[in-house]
Amino acid sequence: ERCFICYELRLREAARLAAEGGYDFFTTTLTISPLKNAQKLNEIGSRLAEEYHVACLPSDFKKKGGYLRSIELSVSTTCIVRIIAAAFFQSGNAAVNSKTGRGCLSVRCR
């Protein structure tokens, strides 16, 4: 149940941005994970589509080997992301947890 609240928060933001930006559709890549409930994500998306007047593109990216393909693609880019993350943390621009010494890095692709 807690996951469904998070699904809605994320999809609501996507729907809002799609409506504000004049886009025809919005969707999510969360359905690629075997741990995510694609049916529930699509139900929430459909409801938000009516609320924001923007179509939701239903998806289940884990079908037809989608999850395995995403792993294959991520392996080819892992080295680049690690180099960027290392440079980011060394520059002092990252938030670091004082107890664990670990930082948080969020990467957005546009």
Describe the structure.
The protein has 110 residues and is mainly alpha-helical. Helices cover 55% and strands 7% of the residues. The chain is built from 3 helices and 4 strands. It has helices at 2-21, 38-52, 66-90; strands spanning 25-26, 55-56, 95-96, 103-104. The strands form 2 sheets. The protein has a two-stranded parallel ribbon. A two-stranded antiparallel ribbon has the order 3-4. The longest helix is centred in the C-terminal third of the chain and has 25 residues, at 66-90. The two termini are 31 Å apart.
Lateral strand order in the biggest sheet: 1-2
Q: Please tell me how large the radius of gyration is.
A: 17 Å
End-to-end distance, in Å? Answer: 31 Å
How much β-strand is present in the residues? 5-15%
Instruction: Please state the overall shape, judged from the principal axes of the Cα atoms.
Output: globular
Low-confidence stretches: 78-110
Helix content: 40-55%
How many DSSP helices? 3
Alpha-beta content class:
mainly alpha
Largest sheet: 2 strands, parallel
* Helix and strand sequence: HEHEHEE
Mean pLDDT, nearest integer? 73
Number of E-state strands: 4
